[in-house]
Specification:
Largest sheet: 8 strands, antiparallel
Structural class: alpha+beta
Helix content: 40-55%
Number of strands: 8
Strand content: 15-25%
Order of helices and strands: HEHEEEEHHEHHEEH
Number of domains: 1
Strand order of the largest sheet: 1-2-3-4-8-7-5-6
Number of helices: 7
Radius of gyration: 21 Å
Length: about 230
């Protein structure tokens, strides 16, 4: 009986070792593929970035347990100073933990003459609906009930945020059917879809950059317009 139990333990360890080996192998291959894509596109590449990680720790998505940043591609074109990177984190208890992998777009806002208000835009879920019923705080727009039904928007400077989310910008966000997460913290704007990754190809990286870059530029334009209105 003891011998059978020992064989089972050894078998589990062997299977676990093989799974870990192939996971590490796939990650290395993915990193190499992203590096080649960045080189082909003329972008800079870093396997990881501690400064970026320090800045990203201030966001609501960051989880210290099992969190990592890798495959960082920096893009400087079309008026952008941006990073596209992969973020891994886990949620749940030891018994029911789930690992998430997603690509994040970061637009640096240091070139804006006016500081962006910090805010978090995220898709509504079932728990949000319950919180809303009991008076949970969310910035809503009476002119766009669909937007308020689809997203929860939070931030301390509500007046500035309302100026920023003008009609044109809200319509742009409504055109996008995917569940967009968007957060401004410090001098950076982060955008992503939960558990969604770009493929390590030129087409996928360029599409990811252009898709979120257009939103970032729309926000910068809205900020300039909101400042002129307030003046």
């Amino acid at each position: 009986m003891e011998a059978l139990f020992l064989l089972i333990i050894i078998g589990i360890l062997i299977v676990g070792s093989f799974l870990l080996y192939f996971h590490i192998k796939r990650q290395k291959e993915r990193t190499k593929a992203f590096e080649l894509v960045a080189k082909a596109l003329g972008y800079s590449f870093r396997e990881t970035d501690e400064k970026l990680k320090t800045a990203f720790k201030k966001t609501s998505i960051y989880r210290s347990r099992g969190s990592s940043i890798r495959n960082v591609i920096t893009v400087r074109e079309e008026g952008a100073n941006a990073d596209v990177f992969e973020f891994r984190f886990s949620r749940g208890t030891e018994e029911s933990r789930r690992v998430y992998d997603q690509t994040v777009y970061r637009l640096r806002l240091t070139d804006s003459s006016t500081k962006f208000p910090e805010f978090l835009l995220e898709p509504h879920d079932f728990l949000d609906s319950i919180a809303k019923w009991f008076g949970g705080q969310s910035i809503e727009f009476k002119s766009f009930p669909e937007f308020s039904d689809r997203y929860r928007l939070r931030g301390e400077n509500e007046k500035m945020i309302r100026y920023l989310f003008n009609d044109e910008l809200v319509r742009l966000l409504l055109k996008r059917r995917e569940g967009l997460f968007l957060e401004v913290v410090g001098d950076s704007m982060y955008m992503y879809r939960e558990d969604h990754q770009a493929k390590p190809t030129k087409e996928s990286v360029q599409d990811y950059f252009r898709r979120y870059h257009s939103i970032g530029m729309a926000f910068k334009k809205a900020l300039e317009e909101s400042v002129s209105i307030q003046e």
